[in-house]
Design goal:
The chain is of the alpha+beta class. Helix content is 34%, strand content 22%.
């Protein structure tokens, strides 16, 4: 079976003019143009219908329909949350819903009332705006929008930072999950706790999760270790918010008999040293090589990943072949639970 190819207007017009060869030229050309326009629109509609027959090619509105059939909702953007440290007069209450503004210009709200102690008191807060912009690292400050008597106006983000903020799932990532679930339902009937199922569930739990390492029986019979990989986060490692989200999701959907746990992957550093030849050691080449190596490392997401020297050389060669690779000198293999993380490239 060949793929449907929509004929162009010019092709249709030429065909119709051939069919109307016996018609006088003064009528043949306008008639062919009219019918070609009409049939070109019909072919376009047929092409559109064909695209809607699969979640792989359908438009966004139809993708919602396909997703509803298989229970694969699109992941909404999530808001950053965590603890901030408040100081002030001991015994002063900092009430829930008090708002503060971060250095990023976004507003945050206190989730639960606390009573200040003698030193710093941890306050649970959440960003009012969903998305990765709400994530803050430890040590950054927030300022109370409306002063509270007895509470210092400036709060500091606690160790661990404010994390978990992520953008809405992209259409293509969502499309891939819908197709994955469709394929599973057709071939297996349901998800039962195989390694691929845990990877799918991890991706479904939080938009930051790219995939996950899954280690069955790692801690004994019936155990499963799930290690989410987040390519867009620092060192590809999940934050505590992501770990909590995956754990909460698995608690509802994983087989009741499974003894699972969710932890961060172990980092397997990828250290690359390159000597670019004179005339090729430019900022643009360095940036392009780092981008190519990053894409290569990001593609390694299995429990038995192997980063071959030939793959590293091939990635560098997409930018230039005028180089000498000084390190690594052997293929890189990961151990159980590890994920490759590219370190800053050393330029000799």
């Amino acid at each position: 079976m060949t793929d449907y190819v929509r004929p162009s207007y010019a092709e249709l017009k030429a065909r119709i003019e051939t069919d109307l060869a016996a018609v006088p030229a003064v009528l043949r050309e306008p008639l062919a143009a009219m019918w070609a326009r009409a049939t070109h629109g019909q072919h376009g509609y047929l092409s559109w219908i064909l695209d809607q027959c699969s979640p792989l090619t359908c438009e966004l509105e139809r993708l919602y329909d396909w997703a509803a059939l298989y229970g694969v909702d699109r992941l909404d953007a999530t808001a950053a949350a965590g603890n901030a440290l408040a100081t002030g007069t001991a015994g002063t209450d900092l009430l829930a819903d008090i708002e503060m503004r971060g250095q990023n210009g976004l507003d945050y709200k206190v989730l639960a009332a606390v009573e200040l102690g003698a030193g710093s008191t941890a306050v649970s807060i959440r960003c009012q705006t969903a998305g990765s912009a709400g994530n803050l690292i430890a040590g950054q400050t927030l300022t109370l929008i409306d002063p509270v008597p007895g509470v210092n106006n400036t709060l500091m983000v606690a160790v661990g930072g404010l994390t978990g903020g992520a953008e809405q799932e992209t259409v293509e990532a969502w499309r891939a999950r819908v197709a994955d679930e469709w394929r599973t339902m057709v071939t297996r009937g349901a998800r039962s706790g195989k390694p691929d199922d845990y990877r799918f569930w991890a991706r479904t739990a939080h938009p930051s999760v790219t995939t996950a390492l899954v280690q069955p029986q790692a801690l004994g019979l019936g155990t499963v270790i799930v290690r989410p990989i987040c390519n867009a986060l620092v060192n590809r490692l999940p934050t505590s918010a992501v770990i909590n989200a995956v754990s909460a999701y698995l608690a509802d959907i994983a087989p009741a008999t499974a003894d699972w746990s969710v932890v961060s992957p172990l980092v397997r550093p990828v250290n690359v040293t390159i000597d670019l030849l004179p005339g090729y050691d430019t900022t643009d080449n360095r940036n392009a090589i780092f981008a190519a190596l990053s894409a290569l490392v990001f593609a390694e997401v299995s429990e038995s990943s192997l980063l071959a020297l030939a793959e590293i050389d091939a990635a560098i060669a997409t930018v230039t072949t005028q180089y000498t690779r000084i390190a690594p000198l052997a293929d890189l293999a990961i151990a159980g639970g590890e994920v490759f993380v590219l370190q800053p490239v050393t330029w000799a």
